[in-house]
Amino acid sequence: MEKDDTICAISTPVGEGGIGVVRMSGQLAHPILKKIFKPNKNTDFYQPRTLYLGHITNPENGKIVDEVFVVFMHGPNTYTKEDITEVYSHGGYAPQKSILAIMTAQGARLAEPGEFTKRAFLNGRIDLLQAESVLDIIQSETDEELKNAVDQLGGGLSRKINGLKANIKEALINMDALIDFPEEDVEIDKKGILLNLRRTVREIEGLVDSYYEGRAIKYGLEVLIVGKPNVGKSSLLNALLLKEKAIVTSFPGTTRDLIEDTLHIKGIKVKIIDSAGLRKPMDAVEREGVDRVNQKIPKADLIIWVLDGSDIYASEDEDVLSKIREMSIIPVINKIDLPQRLDRTILKSGNLQWIEISSLLDMGLEELKNEIYRKLMEKGFKKSGVLITSIRQSDALEKTAEALGRAITCIKKQEPIEFTAFEIQESLSCLGEITGETCPEEILQGIFDRFCIGK
Ligand code: GDP
Predict the structure, then answer these.
(1) How is residue 40 annotated by DSSP?
(2) Which end of the chain has fewer CB atoms < 10 Å from its terminal CB, N or C?
(3) Nearest one of 21, 160, 136, 39 to 390, comparing CA atoms
């Protein structure tokens, strides 16, 4: 069985570096390392979690591969709960590859992506949420993202889910008593169960709502720049990103596709997207570009509507506004370095608060960033508490709440108690998917496949 294999992998990024770590986990981890490591000071016994200096040699020909530090760790107090060894060699492709080759020649096999973490999960050291958080920590780009992932690894979200599970189980136990002893006049506290289930549904809904924030922290919120052609959308994107991401020309209709990049504003990841100018398309490519903007508008978290201060307010501007009116928007008047012709009273009468900028001269951009932050925060950023960060978690929670909703309906309609118990059981199974207790193998594999090799 593959779980009994001893696995090995390079755990540091491939390339040149000061040091590189090669890790082994499994029954043969200690015997293999003892065979291939020659300590500088002879020893019969390796203290666990102590560094030993020496050389990795190839037992087939006695050749030294590299000078290294090694450490032995005993299961179950290790990352995988198995015996682990780590070799700290010089960072570089050749030494690490040679060490790995010697390990595999001695009976270890190359680890699959995420296999160390998968073993930690399968051996019960962490649940699936914590395993996912390991990946989130590795991929964190902002402090906020890291903080949330570290909380999740510490079991913050797991505890919350387990609390919900305990509540639901309590309701189930009450009901089982009635199913098991129908003839005995067991009084069940239906009102108590209903209250408990309703409270649990509310808590789950709160968690589902936190996905907005969790997603924002992890993937970034989407801020879409729209406006008629030539108002300076691409220039604004470049000015915000401080780089030439989009092509800027004086010809209208240059940007045909959605161009995006990530910006961090006060610790929030913001995906800024430049779009094709909205006007009657001149050709098929431009039409495709305009279609893409139209599809993107309802999905964006915030719209920056760019107007040209040096131009009059035209029917094309009005057309743009009609498309975004329902959205959260920041009107931005660009090109304030030029003589102004734009009539502000139109915005005033629409009760729209605008910001004046010059993308060319970098004027007003800080104020715009502050406003982007403020608007995004308005959408319910709490910056505290337990957050969910993946659609997988959100979907499973929604399914849990739906099953509980059906259980509540069964109780209210006085349907047979078995129906209610079935729905409650179903909700527990959905909840179990989140922590991995009842998670189908392909979902599990999908999660670990996203890891790098060596983690
Ligand atoms: P887009 O079509 O809306 O993406 O507009 P671009 O960013 O391509 O800019 C159109 C033209 O306006 C280019 O010639 C830019 O150099 C110019 N432009 C953009 N922003 C400013 C600005 O703040 N001031 C001035 N004077 N010109 C600008």
Answers:
(1) S
(2) N
(3) 136
How far apart are the C-alpha atoms of 170 and 176, rounded to whole Å?
10
Per residue in 217-274, pLDDT (tens digit) is: 788 889 999 999 899 999 999 999 887 766 666 666 666 667 888 888 887 889 999 8
Beta carbon of 231 within 6 Å of any ligand 1 atom:
yes
Ligand 1 geometric centre to CA of 272 (Å): 17
Q: Is 228 in the pocket of ligand 1 (CB under 6 A)?
A: no
What are 25-50's pLDDT values in tens digits? 999 999 999 999 999 998 889 999 99
Of the candidates 128, 133, 125, the residue with the CA atom closest to the CA atom of residue 151: 133
Determine if ligand 1 sits within 6 Å of the CB of residue 363: no
pTM for this one?
Answer: 0.73
Give me ligand 1 centre to Cα 230, in Å. 6
319 vs 313: CA distance, rounded Å: 11
Ordered DSSP codes for 355-408: EE-BTTTTBSHHHHHHHHHHHHHHTT----S-----HHHHHHHHHHHHHHHHHH
Structural domains of the chain, ranges and CATH numbers in brackets: 7-111 (3.30.1360.120), 131-210+388-449 (1.20.120.430), 217-378 (3.40.50.300)
Nearest to 359 by CA among 213, 234, 199: 234
Q: What is the pLDDT of residues 304-345, one digit of tens each?
A: 999 999 999 999 999 999 999 999 999 999 999 999 999 999
Angle (CA) 297-303-304 rounded to 5° is 135
Enumerate residues 6+ apart whose C-beta is below 8 A from 300: 222, 223, 224, 273, 327
CA of 245 to the centre of ligand 1 (A): 14
**How far apart are the C-alpha atoms of 115 and 445, rounded to whole Å?**
10
C-alpha count within 13 angstroms, C-beta hemisphere, residue 173: 7
- 388 CA → ligand 1 middle, Å: 40
| Distance from residue 363's CA to the centre of ligand 1 (Å) | 14
Q: Does the Cβ of 242 fall within 6 Å of ligand 1?
A: no
